[in-house]
Amino acid sequence: NDVEVLTIGDKKKLYQKREYLVQVTIVEGRELKGLDASGTSDPFTKITVGKEPPQVTKLVEKSSNPVWNQSFTFSKVQLSAIELETFELLIEVLDHNDFNANTLIGSVSIGLATLYRSANHELFKRWLPLTNSRFPNEDRGYLLVSCYIIGLNDRPPVHTSK
């Protein structure tokens, strides 16, 4: 019989909130799908961590290979064990439109628990493929990203430039 019984103490641990810090650096995009008549887009990225308010990069006009080099910090993110397992870091690359709604070029999501279990709780300078469920078989481009999540007793990752 493999049924596991949770005690009241175990259940409290699942719902007890812990504080985390999430740092995201959007370095650049490559080969982003051009959505404008010119064959390029006016891309910017929108970063969302769980239920926290999103943050956005600057807009780069008429580019398929934008460079942002922008970092975003989500501090004092309160997550229960269940939320850590189910919430995601969502990065959406959007094409800015002056008069119509912005259009999704593509997105990538990383589970917060997956990120936390990675070496040093991070992804460092990783090229991530963008997807768009409306165009499942179409290349949407790539995003170079560094990100980490740390709890109160964790140290942020350190990298020396060479």
Would you write up a description of this structure?
The relative contact order is 0.23. A hairpin with a 7-residue loop joins β5 and β6. This protein is mainly beta. The chain contains three helices and eight strands.
Order of helices and strands: HEEEEHEEHEE
Rg over alpha carbons: 18 Å
Instruction: Give the helix level as a range of percent.
Output: 10-25%
Q: How many strand elements?
A: 8
Low-confidence spans: none
Mean residue pLDDT? 92
Major sheet: arrangement of strands: 4-1-8-7
Structural class call reads mainly beta
Report the major sheet.
4 strands, antiparallel
Number of helices: 3
Distance between the termini: 55 Å
Hey, roughly how much beta strand do the residues contain?
35-45%
> Could you say which overall geometry the principal axes of the C-alpha atoms support?
elongated
